[in-house]
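#struct-pred
JK: can someone run the complex with cobalt (II) ion? inputs below
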Amino acid sequence: MEKRPVVLVVMDGMGLAETHLGNAVQQAHKPTLDFLYASCPHTRLRAHGLAVGLPTDGDMGNSEVGHNAIGCGQIYSQGAKLVNENIDSGEIFNSKAWRELVDFCKDGHKMHFIGLLSDGNVHSHINHLKALIKQAKAEGIHEVRVHALLDGRDVPDTSALTYVDDIENFMGELNDDTFHACIASGGGRMQITMDRYEADWSMVEKGWRIHVQGEGRQFASATEAIETYRKELGVIDQDLPGFVVAKDGQPVGTIDDGDSVILFNFRGDRAQEISRAFDGDASFDKFDRVKVPNVKFAGMLQYDADLQIPKMYLTEPPKIKYTLTEELCKHGIREYAISETQKYGHVTYFWNGNRSEKFDENLETYVEIKSDVVPFEQRPWMKSAEITDELCAAIESGKYDFLRTNYPNGDMVGHTGSLTSTIIGVESVDLGLQRVMESVKKVNGVLLITADHGNADEMYQAPKEGQPLKAKTSHTLNRVPFIVYNAKCKLKTDDNLGLSNIAATVADFLGIEPNEHWNESLLK
Ligand code: 3PG
Ligand code: CO
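RT: done, structure tokens with the ligand placed:
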């Protein structure tokens, strides 16, 4: 069935849940989606767990694995799983990077671990950190420092102390006359270090000052910092400001010449900027690093193989092949990808198997709309209107055969935990969709609508008897929709279908043969 152009909309974080309570998707006024469900072919897809290459079906989906699966039509073992395997087999400790870093800091210097301290399994896992610290001691390293980024975004919103206690108890048991490990600095992941897609380099600069130079508000411990900031500011973990752990006014773990540094996050979007700061030569100009210590730096994974970020890494990333973009380029299909900064790399870098380079400069057009740097619960519509303006013009221009976008609202606003704002976010997406439908109708193309994982569909944590409802900021395990507008077709409804079935479906609509490595099309 050939029908062009094909337009694919990813409604980030807008999954399908039965419950109405706390379901921002259901509660939103969304005439467009209601119309689409009532009158167009649609089905449900898996977007979590094994269906997207995560270790278990208990793992919620996320944008990296979701966009990877949509963009390559296959299921690859993802970072979370690859690191587990690498640690279980012990291979990680034979890697060139681990060996070099151990040798570098062994004699009287420190080994630092920077990363997201939780078991969210989206960017990192605390068990990976534990394995690295334990082995550091076994290798004869004397001093370990942890720079703990507090989560509250992939895990409950005020759970930081659970993980701080856990890692401190773990380190306490290892500490003895020859070995000393402790938390040296940290802060909320949305305040320091973990910016993505260059939305706000000042976050990375703040992280650099805190982790490397030990410049920031001082506390006797991470716990004291968290408790004090909570009392003073009343914010959730992801928004806690940076802190430095100090004794007698001296930071306990600055990053100095001769030290080794490991970024233990496996996911790339929020790991690249800090990696570039450590790896970058004198031409690095994103912020003034003041003094760049002579350290060896490695990432848990290589986050971008084309750009070699970072140069050294402990685990080989999945080598994602036969991507949809590559295949479409071979057929001369003209492609267009657009989103705002917060999700721009999702429809380009993640979409193309974690590569930021284009396959074919002549066939691919990428457009980024600059995101506002604001708390998104204050602007839940984000840049949905601007994305829609550009996308509709591109659809109607006749210049492209395949267009894709990501509306971030359901996810980015969903992560704030504000139900009211998330409902408005969903409504903004609905309004955008209506305009996209009109453009698609005008040129008689086909519109495919899906989501990469759930988030806005569950804005409350599971209720506990007799306790008030608590906001939920993380993703969900729910299925996501797949809707076809303006094409008569029948869709498969098997329970095991997932995001990796979309690539072949796009190829079918474009009238080209799906790549033999892809999972089956959703068209009957
Ligand atoms: C984030 O990085 O914001 C969250 O950990 C995951 O969100 P995403 O997978 O939707 O980007
Ligand atoms: Co998200």
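RT: quick notes.
The first strand starts at residue 6 and ends at 11.
Residues 13, 63, 411, 415, 455, 475 surround cobalt (II) ion (ligand 2) (CB under 6 Å).
JK: thanks, will look after standup
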